Amino acid sequence: MDEPTTPTLTSNPVSQQPSVTSSAEPKAATGKKVLIIEDDVFIRDLYEMQAKKMGYQVITADNGEEGINKAKANPPDLLLTDLMLPKLDGISIVKMFKSDPTLSKTSCLIITNLEDATKEKEALAVGASAYILKIKNTPSKVVEMFKNYI
Amino acid sequence: MDQPTNQAPTKANQSTQVALDQNQTPAPVDFVSMVAHELKTPLTSLRGYLSVFIEENAKSMTPEQNMFLSRMDIASTQLSTLVENLLNTSRIERGVITLNPEVVEWVPFVKTIFVEFENRAKERKIELEFIEPTTGFTKLMVDKLRITEVISNLITNAITYNKEGGKIILSIEVKDNEVVTHVQDTGIGIAKEAQGKLFEKYYRVQNSAAGRANGTGLGLYVSKVFVQMHKGKIWVNSESDKGSTFSFSLPVARDVPSVQK
Fold it and tell me: Where are the annotated segments for Disordered (chain B) (predicted)?
């Protein structure tokens, strides 16, 4: 959790919070490309929608092999990958990115529901820039983080 | 049961074989942990779509629609907390909980968590009050995730067992080497004979009004373990029908070079 600023007890409840993203025109495209690898279609679609609203170009894949192939054909600026995936897990994907000259500069973020300090250390050790817990971070908050890495 | 021999397969001996196979299938090593983790996937979708919908549509909703969304949000948070407590209990039993401590400025950290319960408290017309210390050293070394769960469990209980129209006061007291956080409610209170068992795993106070026990009996147990892992203490003062104050202490982070005054 990020270090909080000091709110007041009269802050607005969730139902009255201002929108993080407007449902009107998306912000001007940042021109940055994001690859999202996530095998759960609901969750993948959610991050894709939010990222597009924030102006990112989005490529998606539902497994590691497909993700790596798409990345090699069209190197992304940022990778957001699930950890537990069919065929190739998130840590292996990050390793492959970091060892490939065309992909090594891509910022890699792992997103997962697995709260495991050992896995987190392993992910950061192989070159992931962040290990994000899905259920603790709203989709908007996750996409907001992208700008910290690209 | 003996295996029949020299018989052509029949429905009778096939079902016997199935029963034997089922008896021999080993149970997963940690079933609760596996189930709780699997529950997180649909829960992530549910909470994710709900949060985006609320962010983008709250202003154009009627008060009743906003109330529906708010209640869905609260219910999904409750479900998430339940899953988290299940997972944590499993991790504690397997001895695989580790802490990732970092320095936090305690007062704003706690206040942020407290404010997040405003919606839920409003549902039961419960007033929230935060009392912060005016002086004192309040930097602590804590695992933010674990301590957030402690505070959330205490506030959740203060709401659940409070009276409609009641109050919750969260206050922070600074002592020489520790900070004590109190969560006081104006709820139904806890009988003396139950107070000694409150922090035991699976213990649930019998709610005589409802004729049954509420909750899973895991929230306070998990909170106790997490506080103790931080070298703190947790305790309760309560009187039936007068309310309860749950308190926990945590040592200050004076000895960490980066936070020395």
Answer: 1-20
Looking at the partner chain, which of A15, A43, A117 has a beta carbon nearest the beta carbon of B58?
A15
The verdict on residue B55 lying in a domain is: yes
Q: B240 is in which domain, residue-wise?
A: 102-259
The verdict on B81 touching A (C-beta cutoff 8 Å) is: no
Q: How far is CA B216 from CA A89, B29, B117, B235, in A?
A: 34, 22, 20, 19
SS3 A82: strand
Closest chain B residue to A114, measured at CA: B37
CA atoms within 13 A on the CB side of B187: 26
Predicted complex ipTM exceeds 0.85: no
CB atoms within 10 A of CB A99: 11
For residue A43, list chain B residues with Cβ-Cβ distance below 8 A: 41, 44-45, 48
Please state the domain count of chain B. 2
Q: Of the residues B94, B125, B140, which one is the last residue of a structural domain?
A: B94
Segment A124-143 mean pLDDT: 94
The pLDDT value recorded for residue B209 is 52
Residues B187 and B249 grouped into a single domain: yes
Residues B38 and B167 in one domain: no
Task: Say if the Cβ atoms of B56 and A21 lie within 8 Å.
Answer: yes
CATH superfamily to which A27-148 belongs = Response regulator (3.40.50.2300)
Would you state the structure tokens that stand for residue B158, as one six-digit string?
């203060």
Residues A24-69 pLDDT 10s: 444 444 689 999 999 999 999 999 999 999 999 999 999 999 999 9
CA distance to partner chain B, nearest, from residue A100 (Å)? 31
pLDDT at B17: 54
Smallest CA–CA separation between B84 and chain A, in Å?
A: 10
Give the distance, in angstroms, between the CA of residue B166 and the centroid of all CA atoms in the same chain.
Answer: 21
Average pLDDT over residues B126-144: 91
